[in-house]
Amino acid sequence: MNLLLATHNTNKRKELKALLEDFKDVKIMILDDLKVEPPIIVEDGKTFRQNAVKKALTLSRFFDGLVLADDSGLEISALGGKPGVRSARFARAKATDQENNQKVLKLLASIPENNRSARFVCYLALASGGKLLETFEGEAKGVILETPRGKRGFGYDPLFLPKGKDKSFAEMPASEKNKISHRARALKKMRSALKKHLRQR
Ligand code: IMP
Known about the structure:
By secondary structure, this protein is α/β, with parallel strands linked by helices. Helix content is 29%, strand content 24%.
């Protein structure tokens, strides 16, 4: 059984492979493995779920197998949930991680420590043959630091201190982040559903 992960990111494939290690019959592919150019999908949804569903459904019409798409980002309470679906382009289109982080720090400059709560959110959508099978949500709660900490990871990791931890996401080795991240939590929920869908095929 082929499972297409709707991404160009090889790290996401690695993460999924590790999590589905015991699914011996599943071959995980990413968009770069396709022999044909995948359609361009504009992520114009108002929610993470809408974007994940749109990607999974569109690609599942072109692919013989299961398609898994994700959409994720950061929601900051004091900013009414921003940057949200605009996480990747918060400062501007094609913004660097540093520009996005600077914008967040600037907007939160006058916000005290006890009002800097935030969460990372990940939605996954599983589709096949143009039909949506299921969606899954994962979240990681925490607070936004006053100064960036750590060099690992990507995106807003240096600003995010997960609840109950004393290291930011960017100070943790990937193995530690991947146990508690929003994406890991959504993927774990997906595992049992995947078993069911594979049995039904
Ligand atoms: P995507 O869903 O992988 O395209 O992520 C959208 C954007 O959300 C990224 O460009 C990051 O800015 C942010 N983001 C999502 N997940 C993470 C994470 O685990 N750490 C830091 N930033 C993240």
